[in-house]
């Protein structure tokens, strides 16, 4: 089956991939296309922009956390029925895990799903040197199907025509457009990347402007032609048939400006297992929804909204009461921070949080952990009945200090070129709660989702705290 698609890749981070990606998505949607967005790698912020623009949930395609066959299945499943798929790359085209170009890189994903690549370069201050740069990306891995070049950060058409002539003469790859330098359309950043879409004022106006710029200087017809020439994909597209399915389990999912970092496929898998997801806001709602059998706190920016979270005392008390009653609770990164006793911001202000763990979170000026990790779940917990290993990703600027020895469920390992370079304990476990810094993709170990839903079912049936202390 043919799934019209292309990858928007960059020569490096900061070249304008996200701005151009959402502009292209907006322009295609304006033409009436049903656009399915994807993001290479473990990012949460860029997919939120994609979803806002297209109206379709963006999906992560991660070639390190997931097997190639799983990546392909998830792509086909979500691209099915859509007019065109736009896949935004991560970092530079060949940047992945360590120095391995075929472990988690944009190039790796493009080969797994046989997608043509549009390479975005920064043309500022260059002429013929742009051709040398493109040629290097072309010959580094000839199996990567680079079908077009978009040049960003140009003064105007004359500069574009100069670079276009050089690139096409020396590389044979067509240039399909450019973007003018325009600081007004730049998406602002803070300590973990772009400011999330839910916090951007006048976002629709800004996206409309970016889309109009794309329409003006990028050949959309050529992009569409390239997408339609993508190699046909064959394989199973139906949702995986799970052995267990748990009806009527209600899992509360924290979703607002403070908590919105979730892999959409994780949520889908919980639903496929029979869970009904009930969304709530720790910022705005007075208490948890009624009749919940589990809680899921994703990552986000609780430190940015710490004062508002602190002031919502009734919600914090509602969560603490539910936890004390044994409700299965799983939290990642920002969710972990929220479940500690307090968060101290970079400004030195201390704000009380839920207080499940006798620990506190302190923000720091530098990254504490960043990158892919191997999470060894060493003892039974809310998402695992048995010890198991799972791949994950960490990215945070906070540290946890504990006033007593809390129980750990994880031993986390960081490797480079197959060699262990660091390891530490994480995964705080208390009552029927598990909270850790690592973000885990359930499709790496689907039994984790099954075990979580089963624990929620046990709680609903009054079978007690299966893995509590």
Describe this structure in words.
This protein folds into 2 domains: 5-228, P-loop containing nucleotide triphosphate hydrolases (Rossmann fold), CATH 3.40.50.300; 249-460, Rossmann fold (3-Layer(aba) Sandwich), CATH 3.40.50.880. The longest helix has 15 residues, at 157-171. The termini are far apart. The chain has helices spanning 17-30, 45-54, 68-79, 106-112, 129-140, 157-171, 203-217, 220-228, 264-272, 306-311, 313-324, 334-339, 446-460, and strands at 5-10, 35-40, 59-61, 84-88, 117-122, 146-154, 175-180, 189-190, 193-194, 249-254, 259-261, 275-280, 294-297, 299-300, 329-332, 342-344, 350-352, 359-363, 369-377, 388-396, 398-402, 407-416, 419-430, 433-436, 439-440. By secondary structure, the chain is α/β, with parallel strands linked by helices. Helices cover 30% and strands 28% of the residues.
């Amino acid at each position: 089956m043919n799934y019209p698609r292309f990858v928007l890749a960059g020569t490096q981070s900061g070249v304008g991939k996200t701005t151009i990606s959402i502009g292209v998505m907006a322009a295609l949607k304006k033409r009436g296309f049903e656009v399915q967005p994807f993001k290479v790698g473990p990012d949460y912020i860029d997919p939120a922009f994609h979803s806002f623009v297209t109206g379709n949930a963006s999906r992560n395609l991660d070639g390190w956390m997931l097997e190639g066959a799983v990546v392909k299945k998830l792509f086909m499943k979500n691209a099915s029925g859509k007019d065109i798929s736009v896949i935004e790359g991560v970092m530079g085209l060949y940047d992945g895990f360590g120095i391995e170009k075929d472990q988690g890189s944009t190039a790796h994903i493009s080969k797994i799903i046989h997608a043509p690549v549009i390479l975005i370069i920064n043309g500022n201050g260059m002429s013929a040197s742009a051709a040398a740069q493109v040629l290097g990306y072309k010959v580094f891995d000839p199996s990567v199907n680079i079908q077009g070049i978009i040049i960003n950060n140009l003064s105007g058409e004359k500069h574009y025509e100069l670079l276009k002539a050089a690139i096409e003469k020396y590389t044979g790859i067509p240039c399909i457009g450019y973007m003018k330098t325009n600081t007004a359309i730049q998406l602002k950043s803070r300590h973990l990347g772009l400011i999330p879409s839910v916090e951007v004022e006048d976002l629709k106006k800004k996206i409309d402007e970016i889309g109009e710029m794309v329409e003006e200087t990028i050949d959309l017809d050529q992009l569409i032609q390239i997408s339609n020439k993508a190699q046909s994909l064959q394989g199973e597209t139906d949702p995986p048939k799970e052995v267990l399915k748990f009806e009527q389990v209600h899992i509360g999912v924290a979703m607002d400006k403070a908590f919105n970092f979730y892999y959409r496929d994780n949520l889908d898998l919980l639903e496929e297992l029979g869970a009904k997801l009930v969304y709530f806001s720790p910022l705005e709602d007075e208490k948890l929804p009624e009749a919940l059998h589990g809680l899921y706190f994703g990552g986000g920016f609780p430190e940015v909204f710490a004062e508002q979270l602190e002031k919502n005392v009734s919600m914090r008390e509602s969560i603490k009461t539910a936890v004390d009653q044994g409700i299965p609770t799983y939290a990642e990164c920002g969710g972990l921070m929220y479940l500690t006793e307090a968060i101290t911001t970079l400004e030195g202000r201390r704000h009380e949080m839920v207080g499940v763990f006798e620990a506190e979170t302190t923000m720091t000026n530098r990254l504490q952990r960043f990158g892919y990790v191997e999470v060894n779940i060493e003892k039974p917990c809310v998402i695992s009945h048995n010890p198991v290993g799972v791949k994950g990703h960490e990215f945070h600027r906070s540290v946890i200090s504990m006033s007593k020895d809390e129980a750990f469920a994880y031993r986390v390992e960081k490797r480079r070129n197959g060699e262990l370079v660091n390891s530490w304990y994480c995964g705080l476990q208390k009552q029927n709660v598990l909270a850790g810094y690592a973000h885990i993709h359930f499709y790496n170990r689907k039994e984790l989702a099954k075990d979580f839903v089963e624990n929620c079912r046990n709680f609903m049936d009054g079978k007690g705290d299966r893995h509590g202390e």
